Amino acid sequence: MDGKTALITGATSGIGQATAMGLARLGARVVLVARDAEKGRRTAAEITERTGNHQVDVLLADLSSQASVRQLAEEVIGRYPRLDVLVNNAGIILGTRRTTIDGLEYTFAVNHLAPFLLTNLLLDTLKASAPSRIVIVSSEAQRMGRLNFEDLQGEAHYSGQAAYNQSKLANIMFCYALARRLEGTGVTATVAHPGLVRTNFGQENPTRTVRVLIALFKRFMKTPEQGAVTPIHLASSPEVEGATGRYFVNKRARRSSPRSYDTAATERLWHESERLVGLPVTSEH
User: Fold this and answer.
1) What's the DSSP call for residue 284?
2) In the chain, is it the N or the C terminus that has fewer CB atoms within a 10 Å radius of its CB?
3) What is d(CA 268, CA 120) in angstroms, rounded to the nearest whole number?
4) 187-193 and 132-137 as β-strands: parallel, antiparallel, unpaired?
5) Parallel, antiparallel, or unpaired: how do β-strands 246-249 and 252-254 relate?
6) CA separation (Å) from 190 to 29, 114, 254, 258?
């Protein structure tokens, strides 16, 4: 990864931090997207201390705000002449329904719309840096996900776990639609399931399912470093050079939910996402 630049969202804890650490060890310049400046500074210092890599930068953004995502993209484009890897890792799960400053359901906004918008805004830079890679961190929760286009924001009926499952299915459908659009550009898009990882994820406002899972399986959960193995592999390994539009578990390609292969639903999600983030609605691919 020498000479390559990797941008990682959700990079100040858990899987994101471990992914940044791993890519820094491989020689990449890592750009950490952080919501908190002090936490970002501490994380960057720790990565430098543990890897000896001084090419660790921090950019601030609140991914629940589309204005902040746009500002982040502008900063990336302005500061970095190339972007070789984009790892969309940041994610949340909430027990109760909340809305963002843009009036959108929080989980869908952060887990799906933020990476959708950020990736689209950085596509020109990624194409100019080809061969380059986009890695999206999803979850096996996608197998329980269902897209309710009549109630994507959970206004009529809300379940924190269902909202999370929907967002993780959306991640995969986004990846597949993106890969189709990037054919021939030298930019690949893959999606990773990191496993059940022992982090602070979901602890701020946990769903009942998260509480039960932690209670039952905490002893058997992966460490963040183990959870980062597949994202790091997809971001850096020559073994997956050219692999695109695929779902990976433990570094191996797997079939995702049957719903994720519904092309009509995938295209509908793409166009609805364009509308929700204020991008021009494109013709069907």
Assistant:
1) P
2) C
3) 17
4) parallel
5) antiparallel
6) 21, 17, 11, 17
- pLDDT at residue 43, rounded to an integer: 98
For the segment 262-266, the average pLDDT, to the nearest whole number, is: 97
Cβ atoms of 206 and 107 closer than 8 Å:
no
Catalytic entry in 80, 164, 176, 247: 164
Beta strands in the chain (DSSP E): 5-8, 29-34, 56-60, 85-88, 132-137, 187-193, 246-249, 252-254
Q: In which element (H, E) is residue 63 found?
A: none
pLDDT at 215 over 70: no
Q: What is the pLDDT of residues 235-254, one digit of tens each?
A: 999 999 999 999 999 999 99
Residue 249 DSSP symbol = E
Q: Where are the domains of the chain?
A: 5-277
CA separation for the pair 33, 50 (Å, rounded): 19
Sign of the torsion angle spanned by Cα atoms 198, 201, 205, 208: negative
Q: Does 164 qualify as catalytic in the annotation?
A: yes
Architecture per CATH, 5-277: 3-Layer(aba) Sandwich (3.40)
Residues 93, 100: Cα–Cα separation, whole Å: 14
pLDDT band at 210 (very low <50, low <70, confident <90, very high): low
Which amino acid, 211? R
Residue 69 pLDDT greater than 50, yes or no: yes
Omega before residue 131 within 30° of 0, cis: yes
Where does residue 41 rank: exposed (0-12), middle (13-18), buried (19+ CB within 10 A)? Answer: middle
The residue-averaged pLDDT of 158-165 equals: 94
The single-letter DSSP state of residue 153 is T
Q: Buried b / exposed e across 198-233, counting CB within 10 Å, b at 16+? A: bbebbeeebbebbeeebeeeeeebbebebbbbbbbb
